[in-house]
Amino acid sequence: MSKKLVTYFSASGVTAAAAKTLAEAANADLYEIRPAVPYTKADLNWMDKQSRSSVEMQNKTLRPAIADTDAAVAEYDVIFVGFPIWWYVAPTIINTFLEAYDFSGKTVVLFATSGGSGFGKTLDELKVSVSDTANLVEGKLLNGKLSREDLAAWADSFAR
Fold first, then answer.
1. pLDDT in tens, 94-147
2. Are 56 and 84 in contact (CB under 8 A)?
3. How far, in Å, CA of 12 to CA of 153, rounded?
4. 75: which residues sit within 8 A by CB, 6+ positions away?
5. How far is it between the farthest Cα atoms of the chain?
6. What is the pTM of this model?
7. Where are the alpha helices (DSSP H) in the chain?
8. Cβ within 8 Å of residue 151, ≥6 positions away
9. Any residues with CB less than 8 A from the CB of 5 and at least 6 apart, and which?
10. Chain centre distance of CA 70
């Protein structure tokens, strides 16, 4: 059986709740991706084109620093990476996280929460941040009520 890790970045708590439910259902360990400088409510105002999140999403080369790099990624076979969808893609802090570790030979399954959009170009935007030997998979949106049974079956489908 594969050893699984659920990692997540959550700005408002919605993705955190989905990640915790997934980790419990999948019998996986849990790791929070935290920014070195936490986002404020003003930073997350997508209506303000000068807000921190807007600027980061407009300039895809910006990589917000993460608070730590102590996720034991090497110990896991399957790593789930969760995040809110911002402007049809993952926040660039997810690129920072993926670039901080070696995911060679690992299965990296994306999951997201969103108020209305799908994954958009997320998979393409994140492929540049992992090695060619990482199996990066577009997973699913985990919005709304999540069935433990369905999540467990989905997570187990990535077992090697």
1. 999 999 999 999 999 999 999 888 898 899 999 999 999 999 999 999 998 888
2. no
3. 27
4. 3, 5
5. 47
6. 0.93
7. 14-26, 52-58, 92-99, 122-127, 148-156
8. 21, 22, 25, 26, 142
9. 28, 29, 30, 31, 71, 72, 73, 75, 76, 78, 79, 80
10. 16
